[in-house]
Amino acid sequence: AIDPEFEQSYEQIGENDDVAIWSPDGEELTEEKQGIHGTHVAVDFDICLADGACLEDCPVDVFEWVDTPGHPESEIKAHPTHEEQCIDCMLCVDVCPVDAIDVDPS
Ligand code: SF4
Ligand code: F3S
């Protein structure tokens, strides 16, 4: 499961579309190691296996597919592109079969 304390244990190394990218050891990410994307709505790309329930169920369409060719779990991931629209309903957290998502309402 995603580490709910990732803001302490990971290092932010950049951003994509204003969505933060976090690396577990602060090192540059690779095709095989994608880190966590997002802060309010955080998706651990190294756990996500492209189930898609989060995209289907989010009532405000926070997520968009992004390509991650070469990643061992899946070659697309749920990117929290519109995390600022999140209404903290927690549906995505509940439906993800591999607990790849952390939503922090604070
Ligand atoms: Fe969407 Fe609800 Fe998840 Fe926020 S908590 S990203 S609104 S499903
Ligand atoms: Fe990935 Fe879980 Fe969504 S596996 S696509 S974060 S439901």
Question: What would you say this structure looks like, in words?
Answer:
With 106 residues, the chain is an alpha+beta fold. It has one domain: Alpha-Beta Plaits. It is 13% helix and 26% strand. The protein has three helices and seven strands, in the order H-E-E-E-E-H-E-E-H-E. It has a five-stranded antiparallel β-sheet. Strands 5-6 form a two-stranded antiparallel ribbon. The longest helix has 5 residues. The protein is globular, with a radius of gyration of 12 Å. It starts with 5 loop residues before the first helix and ends with a strand. The model has no long low-confidence stretch (mean pLDDT 97). The site of FE3-S4 cluster (F3S) has 14 residues, from helix 2.
Task: Name the poorly predicted regions.
Answer: none
This entry's quaternary arrangement is: single chain
Distance between the termini: 20 Å
CATH class group? Alpha Beta
- What ions, cofactors and ligands are bound? iron/sulfur cluster, FE3-S4 cluster
Quantity of strands, as a count: 7
* Spatial strand sequence of the major β-sheet: 1-2-3-4-7
**Mean pLDDT score:** 97
Strand content: 25-35%
CATH architecture: 2-Layer Sandwich
